[in-house]
Amino acid sequence: MSGSAAPGPGSAPCRFAHYFVLCGTDADSGLEPDELAVLYQWLEADRHGKSSDTANRTSVQVLIRDNEGENFDQSPLRRTFKSKVLAHYPQNIEWNPFDQDAVNMLCMPKGLSFRTQTDNRDPQFHSFIITREDGSRTYGFVLTFYEEVTSKQICTAMQTLYQMHNAEQYSSVYASSSCSMDSLASSLDEGDATSLAKLHQYNSYDISRDTLYVSKCICLITPLPFMQASKKFLIQLYKAVTSQQPPPLPLESYIHNILYEVPLPPPGRSLKFYGVYEPIVCQRPGPSELPLSDYPLREAFELLGLENLVQVFTCVLLEMQILLYSQDYQRLMTVAEGITTLLFPFQWQHVYVPILPASLLHFLDAPVPYMMGLQSKEGTDRSKLELPQEANLCFVDIDNHFIELPEELPQFPNKLEFIQEISEVLLQFGIPPEGNLHCSESATKLKNLVLNDLVNDKKNGNIPSNTINVYELLKGNETIARLHALAKRTGVTVEKMTITAPMAEKERDVKLQCEEEELRGYKLNVQLREVFANRFTQMFADYEAFVIQAAQDMESWLTNREQMQNFDKASFLSDQPEPYLPFLSHFIETQMFATFIDNKIMSQWEEKDPFLRVFDSRIEKIRLYNVRAPALRTSIYQKCSTLKEAAQSIEQRLMKIDHTAIHPHLLDMKIGQGKYEQGFFPKLQSDVLATGPTNNNRWASRSATTQRRKDRLRQHSEHIGLDNDLREKYMQEARSLGKNLRQPKLSDLSPAVIAQTNWKFVEGLLKECRMKTKRMLVEKMGHEAVELGHGEANITGLEENTLIASLCDLLERIWSHGLQVKQGKSALWSHLLQYQEREEKQEHMAESPVALGPERRKSDIGITLPTLRVSLIHDMRHIQNMSEIKTDVGRARAWIRLSLEKKLLSQHLKQLLSNQALAKKLYKRYAFLRCEEEREQFLYHLLSLNAVDYFCFTSVFTTIMIPYRTVIIPIKKLSNAITTSNPWICVSGELGDTGVMQIPKNLLEMTYECQNLGKLTTVQIGHDNSGLLAKWLVDCVMVRNEITGHTYKFPCGRWLGKGVDDGSLERILIGELITSTSDEDLGKQCRTPPQQKSPTTARRLSITSLTGKNSKPNAGQIQEGIGEAVNNIVKHFHKPEKERGSLTILLCGENGLVAALEQVFHHGFKSARIFHKNIFIWDFIEKAVAYFETTDQFGDNEEDVLLQRSSCKTFCHYVNAISTAPRNIGKDGKFQILVCLGTRDHFLPQWIPLLAECPAITRMYEENALLRDRMTVNSLLRVLQTLQDFNIILEGSLIKGVDV
User: Which PANTHER family does the protein's record reference (predicted)?
Assistant: First the structure.
């Protein structure tokens, strides 16, 4: 934070505090109800479609932290009234203008509150943060206390309000009227006052009997988060106001001192300045240390517990929506700041409002990642809190130690070891890792046990609690010895003094200049942060290697920032240990990671971002100390080794104070004003506080010279660099890329501003949609392929999953923007359900079968698949029937995946939104889905995703039952359409097969259900050759997945039957995915060209037409074909495992290895029909086997002989195993099996030379055949040799029944 908080050039950023503010009640304006609350009521009314004046009349109970607004069901003491900034000093600072509305709202988020002498009136401390639109931050520290009301007028007004209120309560209790409560309101309501007794007890204010108190607050606004020091200063001021004696100097002296005379400590130094009663010490980390953070992490861990905190931390890293919920503002702030501190070196880039004022509740509607804190009310039930969107929400109930996480949250890498390491640090400091539940006794007991152990552990610097002689303590410690000598001189005796542990600690206080406890807090903070920072240093140790530095100069980089890929994500992920991937693949898509990489690239041209500088220097350090090669990623957990030195540097700074500020002193004030009155904060003299001292003290002059130097440098860089305004514009654009509205404006809350904010959201969502769809396309196709309009569009696996998950998240956010009434956790699914309900009603009313028109229309050409109906409702029903999915968010995601796979996402959503009456009912006017033009563009962007094939549904839901439809298409002209024998079929896919299924007699179409087969690869089809018409000529088999609509064609073009073709009774067909081109298909505008790897021409092997009718390929083409087929297999194995396609297609498909080798064996094959009988390659193979089995003549060289013998043996063994297999496979089918087994077991290069030298070759092959040419055979062997290194696994269907 220190990086972003430092004000820009032209300022004097050296002051510790920028403003001192006083807020409270304004005696002149009296009691005003909180206007912001009224505005909120107006918004609520708008939400419910009422006019705003009725909203004020009816007591709409508003979701406001203490039911602000003139809400007459509230007892007047519980109502909130308008607070006001009573004074702030100085009036304004140019580099940090005073934002009165925001400060007032955040100092008193609930407005003014009243108490009587019977109520608890302890002062409360809280802090806040104002984030400006450019992301820079200012911190506020507030102490709220109660002051007696002296204004008669206000007391009387309160009495009157009470009388009115009680009268109304009586009547309402007797009438027992039920008030209409908004669910939100009731969640934060006081609880219905049920009995009159209760009413009396609580609702009493009697002007004659009771003293009325009102809240007032004092606040410091500072550029850096010095929380501890500011808190001490404010508490001392408050003590001065309430103590019996007036303070040593007027309060103005102390305030003037902290505003104008206390500088910020320089980096790496500590500073002492003076409060009213005692000195206050603060310190600031050096340039190479972790940035300043002063919020106690101890509290954050105690409040949430370690496990929960790490889960919330993971949600923050993945930029989910985080809603913190607690009664206590400071807790909200502590957890929010604690977690964002731990993000180092990354920074939260989105909406950040740790304390959400009541009037800004509509911000929970923001369709962007946010981190917000909402104040809960005592006794409120979480279930009553209705939030606009929960699909991607991490809900953190701080007070109840409870979190709700989004579904499918990936684990943080090495989570268990990480938690173990943090808990070791926590236990050293006596903090139980499970957190400190205020209600659980065991937790407290455990804590005490641990603390006792620590207290009695001398090494830890604590002292056993028994009494000890001081001399024991003093021996050998010169600092204490000097103190002791001093004490003696001043007459204090310590000889006989016995001390208990706390006294001993006080003794040390003198030495440390700040309380032991505080030092422990600082040490714990820094050690915990070191552990977290070390995790990122280890995980991203070599991130630099993957940064793409494309641009030559800053200007060209900034102008083309949107089009540029600046981080090589795929290579980075391929380098990471497998278990890290689910988390990392999401994380590198976040805005915080993108900004981090942008800063890295920008650092070529300008000063490094402070966070980046520290992080890079740590990586350097790791490289120096680490012996391991930096290129090797390891998942071995490496603990943080810098804990000790980090704690020491802080301890040294606090032991030896580097700077001391000027003491507070008397100012030139008018006498008699601002008289001290116990319990009342005096009216300060504004003239002395309006400006600082004129004398040129040393730090002011020092800052002036550095400022002049900076100005000179700046002018210089402006001359040589870009025009600064232009650069700033580019920078802003670059930083806001993908970010929507960075920060809500807290000050101006007119409806116009709210509308404009929503408009920014709409624009941001559209931009994000454009970026995401483009990213998904580019990932799928690769840059070149997109430009050339082709490419193997088939990435699967991790990268795709991440992108699709982030698309689901974007759609959920779009659907929850501007929602009127929320139902269920998923806004999209809720909309779909309401649409389904309406459509089904209309269907029942119409009840006409016409809708099914095209469903079963058979085409005139003969049998084909009936057209699959395109219907949004149908797809929803498929999802609803999936018992595996238990939640609405899950159903919405499954539906998006299914629509994406069917290339119907854009079309379905268009159909969903075409019902305008429903959209109007569900969404407010400003919602994204009701902005015509943006909605059209959004659907258009989604339409572009139809350019690639996704299998994101099939590949994720692998265990569901899926209906398939199969159609067998015979060639009628040449054979009978139906066979008399009993045909059977078995369909296989990447995830399994159907098993053998009998095809019903006389039917060529069948439907069946089986567990998801994944992408389909092969079909085995055959029959038992019974009956008269047993021969069957099959053109192809078509199989369709009835849920996703994916249709596969399995070309055959061969006979099945004895004594025809190659005598095969069964064939293995290789499938290819085809794309639908039917006219009825509504989706025809969004179809893709067919996949490159499987052209749709059916595979007609040249085997049947050996008479030479079709043009045969020449020798050159055949050799090329072999090279191509082998090359494709090599490429297949070089892809990441999750991204490989089907190996079966590469082996047995149209241009596969089997087909290429068939061409080699056919070249020069003497195929004249001998007695009208075709001769096949298998005939040659069998002759070769017969020869090998009978002969014993091999070469002379003994080694060669052994080798050839073993090769002959395996060859004969394999061929015989195939011939005797219990399958009715034809001769070409047998050759296919032989090639597949030979490839798998790496025997092909040994077998081919045997065949080339076998005597049968001269009888069966021409002189010019390739197999008879030594050179060609050798080059063929060299090519096949390249497959030796790969572990080839064959699909079961290819080699079923063959036992080798």
Answer: DENN DOMAIN-CONTAINING PROTEIN 5B, PINSTRIPE, ISOFORM A
